[in-house]
Amino acid sequence: MSNPYARHNEQSKANFDGVYDLPDPRGYFEALGALDYRAPEHGRRVFSALLRAMRRGGGPPPRVLDLCCSYGVNATLLKHDLILDDLYAHYDSKELTELSSEELTTTDAAFYASRRNPSPPEVVGTDVATNAVSYALRAGLLDAGTAENLEAYEPTGALRRAARGAGLVTVTGGVGYIWERTFERVLSSIMDNPPNGRPDDRTSPWVAAFAVRFVDYSPIASVLARRGLDTEKLSTRTFPQRRFENAGEREHVLRELAAAGIDPAGKEEAGWYHADLYLSRPAAEASEVSTDDLLGASEALDY
Ligand SMILES: C[S@@+](CC[C@H](N)C(=O)[O-])C[C@H]1O[C@@H](n2cnc3c(N)ncnc32)[C@H](O)[C@@H]1O
Fold this sequence. Notes:
The protein is an alpha/beta fold. Helices cover 43% and strands 16% of the residues. It has helices spanning 4-11, 17-20, 26-33, 39-54, 73-79, 84-91, 94-97, 101-113, 130-138, 157-163, 180-191, 218-225, 247-260, 283-288, 291-296; strands at 63-67, 123-127, 144-147, 166-171, 206-212, 229-233, 239-243, 272-282. Helix 11 (180-191) runs parallel beside helix 12 (218-225). It starts with a helix and ends in a 7-residue tail after the last helix. 42% of the residues are buried.
């Protein structure tokens, strides 16, 4: 199945490859911040609400597996008393400008340690960007992390171990870079790899992914359905992801939306990529309460 995001990437999307794998995140926040990238802030609110819902019976929050985890941005926001704008302000601060990457990593480890939530979820991550994952581990942002490309290769043993028992799989800004093969391999890492090796302990995670609106998520939903997960799109709102960098991006996206019959009024037409939230859950859980009922009325999404 063709991936429209890959086509967009090749033809007209702003290219951030130069900032995805630096030794520290300053360049990433500078480049993405210049276009008002908001995806991790939406992730913070939605994933926190999901973790609260999943804990309703008490107990610790489930382990989170963040795909395309980059410098551990979603982990940072889930584990600390910080919002995305705090991270933009932090990485823009004058005091950090002169630090080497090593010095910054040490400074960040202390900065984040002092802002840690009292009972943070365990967050493990994977991304193709080796330096970014390494920074996130050394700054103490990820509990475990691996650098790999699941579109091209089978998961490493390290990822299979880190993924074991994960209850929530998350993605911001990554769908399109990752596609069906990654989701199949991630689900296999979790579900075919039960804690203690006992098939009865097999776990079915929830998968919460933001995808820009012109991307047809159905190939991924089909992969997840083969693993017993029902996918719903939140219908109560969409999520502004970032401003278009230029007219070429905008025109390409508007053409893709027109072809898909999606109305861009007030959203992409106003200059922003908008993302939908897709939530996939085991069929029995999904039939108990809809995604709209679970999240739509949540104050956390009322912004
Ligand atoms: C827009 S960034 C999103 C990062 C982070 N989730 C956030 O929202 O700030 C996209 C990320 O996808 C990663 N990526 C691209 N291709 C990938 C692949 N095949 N497998 C894993 N990660 C990939 C990049 O290295 C980059 O970190």
